[in-house]
Amino acid sequence: MRFSLSTWNINSVRLRIDLVAKFLESERPDVLCLQETKCPDDAFPLKRFKRLGYEHVALNGQKGYHGVAIISRLPFASTDVRIFCENLDSRHISVAFAAEHTSAPLVLHNFYVPAGGDIPDPELNPKFKHKLAFLDEMKSCEPLHPQGDARHILVGDLNVAPHEHDVWSHKQLLKVVSHTPIECEKLLAAQHQGGWLDVARERIALSDKIYTWWSYRAADWTIANRGRRLDHIWVSPALGPCVQDYQVTRDARGWERPSDHVPVTVTMEL
């Protein structure tokens, strides 16, 4: 069966619900994972998603900050939320799909990793210290280590651009949070420990630039094109041969009142 999944840091789901609807009406992924929803669960726009044909929603939200959601046309067999760093911030949610809906059991994790602030020094910046600890916990988290034929997907705004060409200038960003060597090492260690395949870099050469985020601070983001690849889709080895396509919806950065991130989509044949 064909299965498509998109991930998008929407930077307030209520503020940008029309943009989400525009994307869903155009692309019709089976599942949409959102980060930074900035919305408590009881205020999430469920009715709008149901009118769009997405009747199954798993939420882990909070007022004004963070928040993750999984919106699906397929029903969930179960949902789960994990706490990282003993912090109740809403940064993770996972769901499992039953075999009858995805040809075999499938587990999906949706993450919003801490951004880390502006100073890349854990001694001077508690936010950066939190980010590094969060990445360490991702590495050691047993549910993020799929074994054998287990079919798992991990997506989200991981807030690290780990490779040289995941940023507009490797040299100029080495001391900028999201591309410092320690962050890159820790994210790649978490990926390696879980045996995850980075879909983007499995399909696009490391020598090619890929961006999913462009700063609001740029006067004209299209001309400057100073992007970073902060949004990721990883799959367990069992799903590697199933991947058919990978797309970054770059145009969404130019929509009216956009998020600074754009949707990223994987298509698989399960």
TrEMBL record:
SUPFAM superfamilies: DNase I-like. Residues 7-261 form the Endonuclease/exonuclease/phosphatase domain. One of its GO terms (molecular function) is metal ion binding. The active site is at 112, 157 (proton donor/acceptor), 261 (proton acceptor). The record marks 159 as: Transition state stabilizer. GO terms for biological process: DNA repair. Pfam families: Exo_endo_phos. InterPro entries: AP_endonuc_1 (IPR004808), AP_endonuclease_F1_BS (IPR020847), Endo/exonu/phosph_ase_sf (IPR036691), Endo/exonuclease/phosphatase (IPR005135), ExoIII-like (IPR037493). The record marks 261 as: Interaction with DNA substrate. Mg(2+) binds at residues 9, 36, 157, 159, 260-261. The record marks 231 as: Important for catalytic activity. It comes from the Bacteria. The keyword Manganese applies. Probably binds two magnesium or manganese ions per subunit. Keywords: Hydrolase, Magnesium, Manganese, Metal-binding. Belongs to the DNA repair enzymes AP/ExoA family. This is Exodeoxyribonuclease III (Xth). It comes from Rhodopseudomonas palustris (strain BisB18).
